[in-house]
Write a structure and sequence with these properties.
The chain has 379 residues and is mainly α. The chain has one domain (2-185, 293-378). It contains 15 helices and no strands. The longest helix is centred in the N-terminal third of the chain and has 44 residues, at 57-100.
């Protein structure tokens, strides 16, 4: 069982381009549709639980799945195997960057990959929405959450308001007083990252580790939120990175598969060599394992309480609404020519009609993108 978990998440960590929404879609394809390890309801509950804690959602979902499948050993194996491929790739890129001072060009490959990702995420969304949106209340909360997301409402606030909306509605319907919500509110401590004026501080591996532990302990939201934390701490406060190095680090996190949080690996290597890469990676991902270990056993219990279940239902709907908004935004940016549109359509047909594995579709999209760019260059 552990071997099967390890092989699955090593493969997903190697080909999971496209950010958290794509990672979640690929996990749903593998553990719900193909292997039947979880029902859609269980999968959505775990997804909702990851949104209640800080840290990288898709990595935490992998850790949850490992825990549900094989207990505590599965928790460690699934999480580590999902992170390691990206760690080694980013480590290699950081080594080349430190040696040659430039990033490799992978735009053509990503152009094809992102088109396929649209189809993969859309297919997963459709299946999950049919599971979650079964009542007019769920549909209303979902539409409101999508509207709020498009208007730029903070993701955490949106999740909390959606959960509370469902709770209040059901509480009124039951004509009973609302129960305390402390058991289902976000579990992460709001640790200060520091907003003091710029004060250059000597670099140390200990300081690097503590900084990334803090980031992993409090960060909700997208990669843009991560960028804000890194800029505030490493550029403005400590002076360990330049603006240009920070932007290169974020670019590497975006163009490599697996968790975007492996941006920390690149930064760690730039400021502290190989030991820095290891320390920074361990620091930013350690809180995810701790939070899942603490919250994972509580997820089944949440369903036995109508209060917790109501909040979780609202969070689940809002989570899928956020995923739909990200997919729409990515689609508008990517599907702008005949080739990306054709790739997305073909991928959708192969995925839905012939159940081709999403990982192979991602690889195929990258190959087509590279070949098309090579043909254009030769022409």
């Amino acid at each position: 069982m552990l071997k099967e978990l390890a092989l699955l998440f090593l493969r997903l960590g190697t080909v999971a381009f496209g950010g958290p929404a794509a990672h979640i879609a690929m996990m749903e394809d593998e553990v719900v549709r193909r292997r039947g390890w979880l029902s859609r309801e269980e999968f959505v509950d775990l997804l909702g639980a990851t949104n209640l804690i800080p840290g990288p959602n898709s990595t935490e979902l992998a850790i949850h799945i490992g825990h549900r499948r094989a207990g505590w050993p599965g928790l460690l194996v699934a999480g580590a195997c999902f992170i390691l491929p990206a760690f080694f790739m980013v480590f290699a890129i950081a080594w080349a960057y430190a040696r040659y001072g430039a990033l490799p060009k992978v735009d053509a490959v990503l152009h094809g990959v992102k088109a396929v990702i649209i189809a993969v995420v859309a297919q997963a969304l459709w299946g999950l929405l049919r599971t979650v949106v079964r009542t007019p209340l769920a549909a209303g909360v979902g539409l409101a959450a999508m509207t709020a997301a498009f208007l730029g409402v903070n993701e955490l606030l949106l999740l909390l308001l959606s959960g509370l909306a469902v709770l209040v509605w059901r509480g009124v319907a039951r004509r009973s007083a609302s129960a305390p919500l402390w058991g289902v509110l976000p579990l992460g401590p709001w640790l200060p990252l520091g907003t003091t004026a710029s004060v250059s501080e000597p670099f140390s591996l200990h300081g690097l580790f503590l900084f990334f532990v803090k980031v992993g302990s409090v960060l909700y939201g997208s990669g843009y939120v991560l960028l804000a934390f890194l800029r505030s701490g490493l550029v403005e406060r400590y002076g360990w990175l330049t603006e240009a190095q920070l932007l290169d680090a974020v670019a590497v996190g975006q163009v490599t598969p697996g968790p975007v949080f492996t941006t920390a690996t690149f930064i760690g290597y730039v400021v502290g060599g190989a030991p820095g890469a290891v320390v920074a990676t361990a620091g930013i991902f350690l809180p995810a394992f701790v939070f899942v270990a603490l919250s994972g056993p509580l997820v089944p219990r949440l369903r036995r309480s109508w209060v917790a279940g109501a909040v979780l239902d609202g969070v689940n709907v809002a989570s899928l609404a956020l995923m739909a908004v990200v997919t729409w935004q990515l689609g508008r940016a990517v599907l702008v020519g005949p080739l990306p549109v054709a790739l997305a359509v073909v991928a959708a047909v192969l995925l839905i009609r012939y159940r081709v594995n999403s990982a192979w579709l991602v690889v195929g999209g990258g190959v087509v993108g590279a070949l098309a760019a090579g043909g254009l260059s030769a022409g």
